[in-house]
Design a protein that fits this description.
By secondary structure, the protein is α+β, with helices and mostly antiparallel strands. It has six helices and twelve strands. It has helices at residues 41-44, 63-70, 122-126, 224-230, 232-237, 241-248, and strands at residues 4-16, 22-30, 33-39, 48-55, 77-83, 96-97, 107-113, 118-120, 164-166, 170-182, 187-191, 201-206.
């Protein structure tokens, strides 16, 4: 990946673009992050850097954590994450990664822990249908219903929807546009929603999606029959003369 940073979700709002359209955006406090550790091809077999985010009191760190962070100087960071950046070999321990690594117009993938909803039923968790509340349904209108066959195969197939823990899992939203970058406030504004509650930790990385720029005429079909339909001369040649003469009468 080209760029990456750790941040904190501030909340959602809306802004107006140049055309006057309302754009829903999420505000993220991204960085500054400190390079705590550097992985090299010679020593570790790959190039990567470990970034630290969020200052924390020294008394809240264990001795192994403190010893690890002291190698990066005075950095006392709460969150550590490793990234295989394209320019990891050029970075050194103690360097700072700020929000200005991103620019307006970039596309990013945002990863976070989604909001936890506790133990939920099959209707809220999977959008299942409920039973009719007329005759014979009993007190099971929101239950999951039949789980499968009985004696054969005598088990429930994997993937069967059911009640259980909802949310509180890692979610990645792909291909979001960077709308605004403010280095003074460490603010990154992306178009759309991202996972997690306000104040939740998120990682922002360059998108894995490949963007192909459409060239002129890319939407024109190469099918000769469809192409001839746009040409009036060829289209007239396909008209049945008998049917045409009948319409003229």
């Amino acid at each position: 990946m080209e760029k990456a940073i750790i941040g904190k979700k501030i909340g959602m709002t809306q802004i107006f673009d140049e055309a006057g359209r309302v754009v829903p955006v999420t505000v993220i406090e991204a960085g500054p992050c400190t390079v705590v550790q550097k992985k090299t091809e010679e020593k570790d077999g790959y190039n990567a850097v470990q970034l630290g985010y969020g200052d924390v009191a020294e008394r809240k760190l264990t001795k192994p954590e403190l010893g690890h962070l002291k190698k990066a100087g005075d950095a006392r960071k709460k969150t550590l994450k490793e990234f295989k950046l394209a320019k990891a070999a050029e970075m050194n321990v103690g360097d700072e990664v700020k929000v200005d690594v991103f620019a307006e117009g970039d596309r990013v993938d945002v990863t976070g822990i989604s909001k936890g909803h506790g133990y939920q039923g099959v209707i809220k968790r999977h959008g299942a249908h409920r039973l009719k509340e007329t005759h014979g349904s009993g007190p099971v209108v929101r239950h999951a219903g039949s789980m499968g066959a009985n004696s054969d195969p005598s088990r429930i197939f994997k993937g069967k929807i059911g009640a259980g823990q909802m949310g509180n899992e890692q979610v990645t939203v792909l291909n979001l546009d960077v709308v605004k970058v403010d280095p003074e406030l460490n603010m990154l504004v992306v178009c759309g929603a991202i996972p997690g509650p306000k104040g939740g930790l998120v990682t922002i990385k360059s998108t894995v999606k490949v963007h192909k720029v459409k060239q002129a005429g890319a939407d024109i079909s190469k099918n000769p029959q469809k192409a001839s339909g746009r040409n009036p001369q060829k289209a007239s040649a396909r008209v049945n003369p008998q049917k045409a003469s009948a319409r003229n009468k």
